[in-house]
Amino acid sequence: MELLSNIALGFETAFTAEALFYCFLGCCIGTFVGALPGIGPMVTISVALPLTFGLDPTVALIMLAGIFYGAQYGGSISSILLNLPGTASTAVTALDGYPLAQSGRAGFALFINAVASFCGSSISILVVMAFAPAIAEIALRFNSTEYFAVMVLGLVAACTIGGGSPLKSLIMVVFGLILGIVGMDINSGAMRYTFGFLELTDGISLISVAMGMFGVAEIVRKMASPSTDGSRSMVRDLSLGSMLPSRKDLSRLWLPTLRGTAVGSMIGALPGAGPTVAAFMAYATEKKIARDPARFGRGAPEGVAAPEAANNAAVQAAFIPTLSLGIPGDVVMAILLGAMIMHGVVPGPQFISNEPAMFWGLLVSFWLGNLILLFLNLPLIGLLVKIITVPGRILHPVVIFFICLGSYSVANNVFDVFVTLIFGMLGYLLMRRGFHPAPVLLGFILGPMMEENLRRSLVIARGDPSVFLERPASAVMLGLAVLLILLPLRKPVIRMLNRKPG
Amino acid sequence: MLRKRNVAHDAFCIVIIGFGLFVIYGGIELSIGTMRRIGPGFFPLGLGGLMVLLGIGLLFERQEETEEDTRNLRGLFCVSLALASFAGLLETIGLFPATMAMVLLVVAAEPDRITPLTVAGIIAGLWAVGYFLFVAVLRLPLEPVSSDIWPVF
């Protein structure tokens, strides 16, 4: 009963004219930027964040979240039609989506994409509704010790699960944590690493770090790659008739969609895994259980349905740790969490009980947004195709312009544009050395919260650090974090042990 | 047999270790406090130490042979200069000249050819977006062209 009244509260919040308008706007922007290869939701949310400062926090978050999940829909369109994934999580869709388009079934592939995405999201929203409040209720019993341990586990998991070198990811997390402590220490009033710049008193701007390390660095990297060629578009017939699947197709697709949703909902809730890992896992699962795996990669509709359901389900499930614990699972969630903080909303387990209208309103708006996207995507495909074929040489100055003015508008100060420039250069150099900048933002957001919880824990324990091991939940989480760090070391250690002397 | 060391990688690890030591030094300069009441330097000291340890660990990590993508120093230089010129000109001579300088520098970084007419179109479009969205709607305190640079008769 309580769930129903909460959902009713959510509908009340999400069905205002303002919320509906910004949800629609967020979804539209998300779809377009998702379809444009190389821009991505991260940069767009960073650019749009300062533009939302005048809005009600709930409406602002509805719009920013709309950009995030809208980008998943848009990203698949360029994957299917151009074989150019708009976002990393839709790369796997191109494996079967593009061959389907090549064989003249582009409309059908886009239809599967839209419907599977909608199913994945809708079911995953129900999972968030069921689990986020329950997890928050457990987390309410946590004190600062457990909360510190959750953050350590979240950061370590984000570094070790996502792939790539865990050591490099850990270095990036620690770098982010260090960036997070720049500014005035709230307890002592001491200035830390501000080098006499008054503009750094409140710390480094999240927007500058995000736009520099992701936006500027990515554009510089893109400029070196060959430009996109719109002539490869596979749009021949996109009438409604060409899109509708046959009864046989439908019966073949509902199970892969449900399996993809299940994989996405589970993976998405884990820190560090995210929609990209979910989509690849769903695809691999389908290929493994298929009677004829050779069809995959040649235009198997299941190869579109399962990863699309998975990546959209993962995007929604990623809100579970973000909204229930205040711990972002991935970089876009870190930005959204930063947006919440900038709008004066305190994230953490109290969020759901303190701001029920915002929490339930957000969840209902996710569903409405997905419904909007389902109906928006199909008729807009023609226009989207024209937009995604805009060459980079026109797009890059436009994006840099928004990055510059976005950085400036946070505090109406050109200092932040210079900070963006420094992080852009740094981001590019780090990227070239194989360091991915995503963990920096996770550390940056969680750094101040971690320090505060460490401080509180030590005050409560009268300076005894063993408190972190005495409380069972904290000990288990820290133990898991250590295990995750040690896990990648098992292979070199086994190799060393097997190597006989002489 | 000894593996051939990657000098660039080792140098980068040393930069990381140096950065960690710098953070430790900053932490010591601030007050570390006691375990019972940690000071503003405690957390940075710990993070600096962790950075040093991770940097040392990276020195010993086997480097995967990855295919190097094209180095884009021209792009990095021009885009950096574009942001710097935008920041430098925005409040001194106005939004429009800053936007024009920024666009010209970003376009100079592009490997593909771009016609002057297209460049002019991009600049005009961004002027319109900049003025209507950021100045008129969002009320950023910016002038399209700074009144200070107009000649006084």
Automatic annotation (TrEMBL), chain A:
Q: Which domain of life is it from?
A: Bacteria
Protein name (record): DUF112 domain-containing protein
Specify one Pfam family: TctA
The protein's UniProt keywords, in alphabetical order, are: Membrane, Transmembrane, Transmembrane helix
Q: Which InterPro entries match?
A: DUF112_TM
Which spans are transmembrane here? 19-39, 51-71, 77-98, 110-135, 147-163, 170-191, 203-220, 358-385, 397-430, 472-489
Organism, by scientific name, is Roseovarius mucosus DSM 17069
Q: Does the keyword Membrane apply?
A: yes
- Give start and end of each DUF112 domain: 20-442
From TrEMBL, chain B:
Pfam families reported in the protein's UniProt record:
TctB
Domain DUF1468 stretches: 12-142
Q: Recite the UniProt keywords alphabetically.
A: Membrane, Transmembrane, Transmembrane helix
Q: Does the keyword Transferase apply?
A: no
Q: Which residues cross the membrane?
A: 7-28, 40-60, 81-108, 114-138
Write down what this protein is called. Tripartite tricarboxylate transporter TctB family
- Tell me what organism the protein belongs to: Roseovarius mucosus DSM 17069
